[in-house]
Design goal:
about 160 residues, alpha+beta, three-stranded antiparallel sheet, 4 helices, about 15% strand, rod-shaped, cell division, transmembrane helix, Putative cell division protein FtsL
């Protein structure tokens, strides 16, 4: 009781019901109703009437439009799922191809390194000179010529002197 007497009360009228606010502390306002609110319960006949009106408002054209909308939504969902699955399979295929490419690149690099290790220029020179009887050309055997306009030599033409 002392608490209520300490509160400052302000009367405000709204829709015929006296509503009082009180201030607790310095700025907080809380609602305190002078009259308790009562809810009118509808009689069963009013509820039944409202339900019948709602049911009648869902007539045949409304159901047709609703059904068409549901069919469209289902079609869109099915299309979305199929596109999503195709995208997922394409991504998996691309990842598989990328891993296959990396594997082939590694195999190519290893084969290239193997060829580079077998390429021994001293061995080639030895085979060419000793087994095949090849010798270096002498200065009087080398013929030089000027480049032509096309910058290439035709095999069947005469070599210019």
């Amino acid at each position: 009781m002392k608490e209520i007497s300490k509160r400052k009360k302000q009367g405000i009228r709204r829709t015929g019901v006296q509503t009082e606010y009180y201030t607790e502390g310095n700025v907080v306002r809380k609602l305190e109703s002078a009259y308790p609110q009562t809810w009118e319960e509808e009689s069963p006949s009013k509820k039944v009437r409202k339900n019948r009106e709602k049911m009648l408002s869902m007539n045949f054209p409304y159901l047709v439009v609703l059904s068409a909308a549901m069919v469209v939504v289902l079609a869109l969902c099915a299309n979305y799922i199929s596109v999503q699955s195709r995208l997922t399979s394409a991504i998996k295929e691309a990842q598989k191809n990328e891993s296959n490419l990396e594997k082939l690149k590694d195999e190519n690099d290893s084969a290239e390194n193997m060829i580079a290790t077998y390429l021994d220029l001293d061995h080639i020179k030895d085979v060419a000179m000793n087994k095949l009887g090849m010798v270096y050309a002498k200065k009087n055997q080398v013929i030089t010529y000027e480049k032509t306009e096309n910058e290439y030599v035709r095999q069947f033409d005469e070599i210019p002197r």
